[in-house]
Design goal:
alpha+beta, Immunoglobulin-like, Neutral Protease, domain 2, 5-stranded mixed β-sheet, 31 strands, globular, binds diaminopropanoic acid, binds zinc ion, Peptidase_M1_pepN, Peptidase_M4/M1_CTD_sf, aminopeptidase, Peptidase_M1_pepN_C
């Protein structure tokens, strides 16, 4: 297959107006009858080329006439009906009958089995595995879907839209027919059949329409769907209040399945979810699980407008719906919870993962220009950086103009498939802001670097700030232009009678200066308030200034970020010299934080060291072992120095545990525990907490957040109780799939040489299977991402382990394989000895026979 280019986009020669599907479900041979009404656009004489993969064609009927084999051609990816076989009329019908094998579909694209249920995943290009079709998002049709299956095995037969007919058939079969009145691209098609428990509720929209809400889960899991239901109702209310957007069908269904490549999918009226983003109760789910469920439910719900009502013209425009919808779900979460902590967590994800992607071989603009396998572009760049770009726009034009821009966007484009430019133009027209330069964010890749330089003239009392920007120069980006970057700054005054000043600066040139008056002595600069732009900041600030910002900045993000910079500077020193003596001012600062009496969730973030990935994204030629040692050394230094206060805070949080703000209490408590568990004299606390949270006479006291936090301490420090705890946990939870995923991840994160033997054993565990993406990730990804010390060990064994699993997954599920390869293709940021070992594994993978496009695209980029 050849790559596709944004520049080559052409509208389709044909469109499809209606689709009538009849699907007879069968494990190994499902039959799909697809009746299309087609329309030739203009007077072109082109052949009709329909996409199709892994299909067995049974028959083709054009305007009631069966086509003979001579009248069409077929290959691995296309069905071609030449112009000579097509009628002269512009409108005609085609009935395509195909057969597929859902049971063998381990790629989980198209129609597949998840346990006993049938389900589909059609984004990006999965519908072509169900039937021959114009599988592109700018072809929008009205779907009617009749699903036929065994009545006892599949009592629920679901598809998009409204149920319009149902009935009994012979041989214990039944059918249900669904009609979706909204024309849609086929990537939003969905079908589910199975036996479920059903949680029902409703939502009354602002205009008074009653919407039935239905969540389908595996039998026995009904109570675990309640949080998802509440989250859905909150999301629906929020979108009405914030953007005036109401839901548009009479029914909204969510189905939770265990086998799913992604997090969830926004199919019109019938979302299919990875069960991990639906099921929760306090025993089996952590606080972050709860948070993520709410966020993903919101995300998929928000897609109903940003994605479904207005969709993408082509897949290069993916960020049109994803960046915008991530921004919307982040705003929602910030409003439902602490906006400061939510923002910090967004930034942590961006800096730890997206910055690395943007610096690696797969770097691409948020609107990519060249794609071999579309599934490779559901990336942190398109999603998270895409959201940052929308956020910058929001910052530049303000909340009211942003809303007007959204209104204009919907009034112009409802029901259409459009581009990122269309969106920006609507924003520009509504706000009156010139966004021509801003659009460069859509076409340039790499994380821009912004350098700050300050000068205070004590003669004139003028403070001058100079900013310089530079986007990375790479093979695919020889001549990057200056971007339009919103830089929010705060100048913190030293003198009580001179107020601090906050400003939004618009950096549009390569170099630009601003002057400030009103200070008689040099103020302290806090840069990038709220992280106003996704850039790397280079600004040498001494520790005194950082400590001032930590204490005095008005902006909570700046206070947190200054602390992280301070910590990062010590980590840097320690990676070069493990005997470096960290100044005790850090101990005072941390004691101050613990004593501050502020929001405990925020303090927990302040206390959390930069992760391995966050630190790595700010370094070059990383020696991963030196970095993991530096992190541990710094953590022990902090633990030793602040142990009294840590213990006091730990106990205070424990006491308040079941009261209000339980989530914030647990967050701080468990950060304290993580530090204390580094010191042998406090390790009894881990044992105690594990017992209380996991093995309590009073079951109501049990709590997964605390249980997992204790286990994580045990596994990170390889504590004596670890094996006993893991065994106990396994016995307790062996029936609960999602908790067993946590157990596999814990095992893979044990910081000990023994982890390799353990990994080999776990691959043979009766509950391990590479066919289940969650399970595969819980072992393999957890090892590669959470266990840097052994993943990067000098023998190369960690790299080998990952590559071996990727090779197996290449045959089973290319999408999952391709995601797991991320840490290996970023080899160039590591020191030469590691680079060599990592590269050797990539070379081996490149030589695989049957290499999927997914892996090929990444390997070629990494090794060229
Ligand atoms: N469109 C889906 C989502 O992001 C893909 N997983 O919600
Ligand atoms: Zn999405």
């Amino acid at each position: 297959t050849a790559p596709r280019f944004l520049a080559d986009y052409r509208p389709a020669d044909f469109t499809i107006n209606t689709v009538n599907l009849t699907i007879h479900l069968d494990d190994t041979c499902s039959q799909v009858v697809s009746e299309l009404t087609l329309e030739r656009k203009g007077d072109n004489q082109q052949a009709l080329q329909l996409n199709g993969e892994h299909l067995t064609l049974v028959s083709l009927v054009l305007d009631n006439q069966a086509l003979s084999k001579e009248q069409y051609q077929i290959n691995d990816t296309l069905l071609i009906i030449p112009a000579s076989s097509l009628p002269d009329r512009s409108h005609f019908t085609l009935i395509i009958t195909t057969e597929i094998n859902p049971q063998e579909n381990t790629a989980l694209e198209g129609l597949f089995k998840s346990g006993d249920a049938f389900c589909t995943q059609c984004e990006a290009e999965g519908f072509r595995r169900i039937s021959y079709y114009l599988d592109r998002p700018d072809v929008m049709a009205t779907f009617t879907t009749k699903v036929i299956a065994d009545k006892s095995l599949y009592p629920y037969l679901l598809s998009n839209g409204n149920k319009v007919a149902s009935g009994e058939l012979s041989n214990n079969k039944h059918f249900v027919t669904w009609h979706d009145p909204f024309p849609k691209p086929c990537y939003l098609f969905a079908l589910v059949a199975g036996d479920f428990d059903l949680l029902e509720d409703s939502f009354t929209t602002a205009s008074g329409r009653e919407v039935a809400l239905e969540i389908f889960v595996d039998k026995g899991n009904l109570v675990k769907a309640e949080h998802a239901m509440t989250s859905l109702q909150k999301s629906m209310a929020w979108d009405e209040e914030t953007f005036g957007l109401e839901y548009d069908l009479d029914i909204y269904m969510i189905v939770a399945v265990d086998f799913f490549n992604m997090g969830a999918m926004e199919n019109k009226g019938l979302n299919v979810f990875n069960s991990k983003f639906v099921l929760a109760d306090s025993h089996c789910a952590t606080d972050s699980d709860y948070f993520n469920i709410e966020a993903v439910i919101a995300h998929e719900y928000f897609h109903n407008w940003t994605g479904n009502r207005v969709t993408c013209r082509d897949w290069f425009q993916l960020s049109l719906k994803e960046g915008l919808t991530v921004f919307r779900d982040q705003q929602f979460s910030a409003q439902m919870h602490s906006s400061a902590v939510t923002r910090i967590q967004n930034v942590r994800l961006l800096r730890s993962q997206q910055f690395a992607e943007d610096a690696g071989p797969m770097a691409h603009p948020i609107r990519p220009e060249k794609v071999l396998e579309m599934n490779n572009f559901y990336t942190l760049t398109v999603y998270e950086k895409g959201s940052e770009v929308i956020r910058m726009l929001h910052t530049l034009i303000g909340v009211d103009k942003f809303r007007q821009g959204m209104d204009l966007y919907f009034s112009r484009f409802d029901g259409m498939a459009v581009t990122c430019d269309d969106f920006i133009n609507a924003m520009s027209d509504a706000s009156g802001k010139d966004l021509a330069q801003f659009k460069l964010w859509y076409s340039q890749s790499g994380t821009p670097v912004v350098k700050a330089q300050e000068m205070f003239d004590s003669q004139t009392n003028i403070y001058t700030l100079t900013l310089r920007q530079q986007s990375p120069i790479t093979k695919n980006q020889q001549n990057p232009q200056a971007l339009h970057i919103p830089v929010k700054v705060e100048l913190i005054s030293e003198n009580n009678d001179e107020p601090s000043q906050s400003e939004l600066l618009e950096l549009t040139q390569t170099e630009q200066s601003w002057q400030f008056n009103g200070f008689t002595s040099k103020p302290t600069l806090a840069m990038l308030a709220d992280f106003s732009a996704p850039v790397k900041l280079i600004f040498d600030q001494d520790n005194t200034s950082l400590l001032t910002i930590m204490k005095q900045a008005d902006n909570s993000f700046c206070r947190w970020d200054a602390g992280q910079k301070l910590l990062m500077s010590y980590l840097h020193q320690l990676t070069f010299d493990i005997d470096y003596t960290v100044p005790t001012e850090l101990i005072n600062a941390i004691n101050d934080m613990l004593n501050s009496g502020g929001d405990r969730a925020f303090i927990a973030e302040q206390l959390s060291l930069p992760s391995f990935d966050e630190a790595a994204s700010l370094m070059i030629d990383i020696d991963p072992i030196a970095l993991t040692n530096a992190i541990t050394t710094l953590a022990i230094f902090i633990a030793r120095g602040t142990q009294q206060q840590l213990l006091t805070s730990y106990k205070a949080c424990q006491q308040d545990d079941l009261k209000e703000n339980a989530v914030a209490n647990r967050a701080l408590k468990n950060v304290c525990l993580a530090y204390l568990s580094l010191l042998p004299e406090y390790q009894y606390l881990v044992t105690q907490q594990y017992q209380q949270a996991t093995n309590n006479d009073d079951i109501l006291q049990e709590n997964m957040t605390d249980s997992l936090a204790a286990l994580t301490c045990s596994s990170k420090n390889n504590l004596d109780d670890l094996n006993e705890q893991l065994e106990h946990f396994e016995n307790k939870w062996q029936q609960t799939t999602l908790v067993m995923d946590k157990w596999f991840a814990l095992n893979a994160s044990v910081v000990s040489e023994d982890v390799f033997a353990q990994l080999d054993k776990l691959l043979e565990h009766p509950q391990f299977s590479l066919k289940n993406p969650n399970r595969a990730r819980s072992l393999i990804s957890a090892f590669a991402m959470n266990n840097p010390k052994y993943f990067h060990c000098q023998t190369g064994r960690g790299y080998q382990f990952l590559a071996n699993q990727i090779a197996k997954l290449n045959e089973i599920n290319p999408q999952v394989a391709s995601r797991l390869i991320t840490p290996l293709i970023q080899y160039k940021s590591f020191a030469p000895a590691h680079q060599k070992l990592m590269k050797a594994e990539l070379v081996k993978l490149q030589a695989l026979t049957n290499l999927s496009n997914d892996l090929k695209e990444k390997l070629d980029a990494a090794l060229n």
